[in-house]
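Form 7-S
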Amino acid sequence: MATDILLGEAEVAIKSPEVTIHRENEPENSSALNFRNATGYWHISGPRTYDPGNPLSVFWNNNSGWIGPMLTIQTGGNIGVGTKEPASTLHVHGGEVHSTGPVAGFSFTTRDLPDGKTTGNDWGERWVWYATQKSARLWSDSDLVTVTALIGNQARMAVKGTVECTFLKLNGKQVGSELSNLRKEIEALKAEIAKLKG
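Output:
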């Protein structure tokens, strides 16, 4: 297989259908590619046979020590951000997952959809958490839950449909207990009215 390596003033061009970086040692542990400037270097390392999953990882070295891995891809398919041992398809450690832009949000489909169907067109097939107009919304064909920030640390939640729950509190008081107390007071009032009439 012929390979052309071209050296330019600002780049090195490799004309080949495949480029292999191989560390010549026994046993073969890892291979790496470094991108360096005066402040440090990015280190792309892998696969590392001494780490679980033979991962490909991206580290930063500030010329005084290693930071990372920032990103890890394991041969089983799991991707880790801020962790070298991702426990799921995408594992983010050490911070929030942030989405910005005109279509920012978190979209997911129901588990009942077959593999390969990435978007659901019918109600309940696809759900989206997103924010707009200073409110957070849960959407599936329409906005079903809307949380709107009010003055201070207060908020208002609007639900399009029925709310079912085991316990519900209003102003710090459990609704079920308050209703029970209210029923007792009504019964006591009825008894007093009956005495007055008698």
